[in-house]
Q: What sequence folds into this?
């Protein structure tokens, strides 16, 4: 029997929802399962309602499901809010001694004295979440030893580790004795070694692998964990992360570091990026390579701080005044986030421009299993560099007008060449000028870089039959949900395929025009209110899509939601 | 040998008689006397008449946005610790648009030198009041007179800067000496420079400053005494002290970065395989 099983952990902020969710994901990942897990949390440190969903599958999964097989309810709200999502055979694990008077039709209620067991067996009533974790694994007869290893890895072999394994065992044993193992069995599959990581961790690893040595940023959900990861690894991996006073300083510091010759980045969310906009143009005119991560969240302004949206596409395409080249990328999956990031650094340096990576809260904080990243596939291309040894440094001109528009870079202080650049329009040497001819030459030179960059843009990903009545078009983090929606619809005999973009600028106009013109119906699937990709397609190809399936409630798409919406559009 | 001709840059587009010429000469003289070659220097400027200075001398130049010379200067200084990094601003650039960066660069004590051409007026945009204009200074944008000015010296001291000095564009010898001290100092070194604007500030003229400035080195003064420094910082009007107002050895931001002990970041190799050890942490 194939495994596609969904756990949910719900509770207040501060109850350890994230911890149990992560450990659940980890223990099944260790057992060879594919995982996709997402986090739904409020903008508060205590209280409220948070949940963590863990999808466990024996095949690759890149999206969350709506159904819940086992719900660990650490508070009453979790039961009330999520009972409608329980499958018929589902189980709700809760502490009936603390949450009284619970009734319901969906899901069989499995009351466990979580707090009592935590206190008696682990000597700490705060460990109710670990007791519940043991109970949940027991309810699918999973391997308790595997959980013990995960707990020891997480909490160490000392007292904390011991108490956690005791708490887990208490929950596990309680369910076994009460229900006599009368549940579905999910056994570890193999020793398949996969990584379990979030989108932000994938981006951080990508940046480090690409040789990013300088990051400056200002904390902002959902991007903060990138700066935290980079700071944590700064000593061992020889890089610098500066917690700047604001986003304006952050991007300008990164630009200064990149000008001086190191690969540099910053990371923020939409309203932080609003402050960084001047830096995008500064990088544009000074031709300084930088990578900017925009972890999108619903706007405008502060919007929904801890939730997800794809509302920044049109913003990042246009942010800043004047005409200059930039690149915009949007990772499709957590694994893709790694490769897109390594690529971003190469493009930034080869074409000497700002590269913006659009991710979002959903991708940033979701977990997925990924086969160990093959670092031998990472390429480092620093673009054209000026060499003091081969050329006369007194002849060096930072903004030399060339056929490709790319002027070899020299780094200040590394040779005798003087590296001069200016946010004013400048001559080839980099000194400010108001000369009409120089101005025109510099604008054209900068824009020419886009022509070569265009050649690097890959073909958007296709999935499903070559010809179909319906083409679903998406970009960025919706890849997994759209991909699976295609499967759902095709099982119901619909003629449907997918076109997905993870490179948005320069826009792959030909490939998209081809797909849209050949589809009888083309729908964009976007996590925003107006269909920003649809507008881009219209602007770049002249084609209108036939429909827009949009979601802007701050929550990610599920495959079932998309499938349902497509059927509705078709009617 | 480094000579003055090594620092001959483009012809300045400043007004004849501008205080900026004195600052340019003082900077060039300091660099020559310190035997620093142009390729060893990075000048990071903002926008305003002061922001043009790097083009009128020679060196590596990053002419940045208005209010922003300090952040890229910090980024570059961290990327290449062998560069001598000098940021150049005007009063509007440093204390208006760039105020937040000024406070935090002082607080974190980055190892850069910051020259602020303080002419108490906006020159590039033609004569509006600046954050340091004297109270009551009437301009097109302040018809009822400017409000109370910021005190950059006091602000720098209380923000944690480890070197705070005031120079005068009309005293090139003294200013050049201050710039040398600022470059030599390890940590954030602010040199606020009184710079007469011959076109738009008809109050704070060369004459006006000359009648008021006095050199702190001419009296018994200990710049390591923070309290005394704050008292000096509050003196403005009939008398204006110039010289090193505050100097102290404080922890330097860049010294706390472990990676920089292996040499300049920009000289360190990229090795993607080093990430291998991180991958195991996710298994």
A:
């Amino acid at each position: 029997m194939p495994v596609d099983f969904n756990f949910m952990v719900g509770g207040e902020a501060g109850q350890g929802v994230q911890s149990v969710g992560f450990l659940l994901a980890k223990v099944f990942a260790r057992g060879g399962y594919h995982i996709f897990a997402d986090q739904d949390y409020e903008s508060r440190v205590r209280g409220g309602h948070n949940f963590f969903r863990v999808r466990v599958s024996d095949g690759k999964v890149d999206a969350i499901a709506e159904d819940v097989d086992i719900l660990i309810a650490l508070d009453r709200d979790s039961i009330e809010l999520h009972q409608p999502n329980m499958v018929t055979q589902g189980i709700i694990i809760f502490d009936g001694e603390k949450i009284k008077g619970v009734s319901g039709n969906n899901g069989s209620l499995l009351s466990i004295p979580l707090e009592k067991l935590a206190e008696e067996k682990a000597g700490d009533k705060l460990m109710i979440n670990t007791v519940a974790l043991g109970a949940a694994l027991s309810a699918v007869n999973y391997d308790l030893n595997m959980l013990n290893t995960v707990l020891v890895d997480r909490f160490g072999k000392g007292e904390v580790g011991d108490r956690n394994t005791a708490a887990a065992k208490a929950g596990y044993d309680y369910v076994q004795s009460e229900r006599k193992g009368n549940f579905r069995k999910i056994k570890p599959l193999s020793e398949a070694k996969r990584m379990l990581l979030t989108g932000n961790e994938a981006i951080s690893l990508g940046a480090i692998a690409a040789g990013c040595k300088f990051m400056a940023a200002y904390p902002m959900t959902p991007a903060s964990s990138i700066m935290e990861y980079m700071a944590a690894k700064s000593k061992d991996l020889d890089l610098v992360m500066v917690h700047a006073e604001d986003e304006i300083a952050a991007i300008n510091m990164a630009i200064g570091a990149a000008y001086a010759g190191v690969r540099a980045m910053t990371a923020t969310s939409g309203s932080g990026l609003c402050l960084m906009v001047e830096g995008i143009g500064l990088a544009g005119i000074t031709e300084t390579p930088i990578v900017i991560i925009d972890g999108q969240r619903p706007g405008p302004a502060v919007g929904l701080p801890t939730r997800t949206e794809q509302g920044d596409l049109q913003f990042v395409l246009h942010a800043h005044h004047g005409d200059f080249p930039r690149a915009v990328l949007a990772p499709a999956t957590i694994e893709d986030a790694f490769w897109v990031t390594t690529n971003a650094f190469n493009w930034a340096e080869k074409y000497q421009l700002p590269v913006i990576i659009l991710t979002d809260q959903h991708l940033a904080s979701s977990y997925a299993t990924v086969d160990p990243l093959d670092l031998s596939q990472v390429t480092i291309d620093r673009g054209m560099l000026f060499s003091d040894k081969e050329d006369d440094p007194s002849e060096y001109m930072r903004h030399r007008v060339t056929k490709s528009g790319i002027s070899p870079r020299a780094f200040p202080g590394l040779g005798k060449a003087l590296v001069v650049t200016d946010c004013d329009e400048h001559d080839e040497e980099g000194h400010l000028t108001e000369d009409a001819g120089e101005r025109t030459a510099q604008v054209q030179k900068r824009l020419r870089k886009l022509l070569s960059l265009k050649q690097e843009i890959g073909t958007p990903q296709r999935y499903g039959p070559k010809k179909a009545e319906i083409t679903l078009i998406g970009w960025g983090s919706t890849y997994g949900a759209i991909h699976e929606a295609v499967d759902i619809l095709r099982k119901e005999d619909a003629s449907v395929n997918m076109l997905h973009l993870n490179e948005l600028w320069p826009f792959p106009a030909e490939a998209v025009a081809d797909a849209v013109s050949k589809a009888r119906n083309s729908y964009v699937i976007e996590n925003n209110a107006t269909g920003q990709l649809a507008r881009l397609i219209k602007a770049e190809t002249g084609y209108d899509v036939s429909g827009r399936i949009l979601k802007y409630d701050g929550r990610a798409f599920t495959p079932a939601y998309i499938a349902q919406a497509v059927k509705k559009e078709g009617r | 040998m480094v000579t003055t001709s090594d620092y001959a840059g483009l012809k300045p587009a400043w007004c004849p008689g501008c205080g900026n010429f004195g600052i340019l000469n003082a900077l060039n003289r300091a660099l020559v006397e310190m035997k620093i070659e142009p390729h060893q220097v990075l000048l990071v400027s903002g926008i305003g008449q002061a922001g043009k200075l790097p083009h009128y001398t020679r060196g590596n130049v990053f002419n940045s946005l208005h209010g922003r010379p300090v952040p890229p200067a910090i980024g570059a200084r961290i990327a290449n610790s062998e560069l001598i990094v000098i940021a150049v601003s005007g009063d509007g650039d440093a204390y208006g648009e760039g105020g937040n960066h000024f406070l935090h660069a002082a607080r974190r004590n980055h190892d850069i030198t910051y020259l602020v051409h303080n002419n108490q007026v906006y020159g590039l945009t033609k004569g509006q009041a600046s954050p340091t204009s004297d109270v009551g200074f009437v301009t097109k944008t302040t018809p009822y007179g400017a409000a109370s000015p910021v005190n950059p010296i006091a602000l720098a001291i209380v923000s944690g800067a480890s070197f705070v000095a005031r120079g005068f564009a009309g005293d090139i010898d003294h200013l050049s000496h201050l710039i040398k001290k600022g470059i030599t100092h390890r940590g954030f070194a602010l040199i606020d420079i009184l710079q007469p604007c011959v076109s738009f500030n008809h109050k704070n003229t060369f004459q006006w400053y000359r009648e008021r400035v006095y050199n702190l080195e001419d009296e018994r003064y200990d710049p390591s005494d923070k309290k005394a420094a704050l008292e000096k910082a509050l003196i403005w009007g009939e008398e204006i002290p110039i010289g090193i107002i505050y100097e102290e050895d404080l922890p330097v931001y860049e010294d706390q970065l472990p990676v920089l002990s292996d040499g300049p970041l920009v000289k360190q190799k990229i090795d993607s395989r080093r990430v291998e050890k991180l991958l195991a942490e996710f298994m």
User: Anything to note?
Assistant: The longest strand of chain B covers residues 240-247. Chain B has a mean pLDDT of 97.
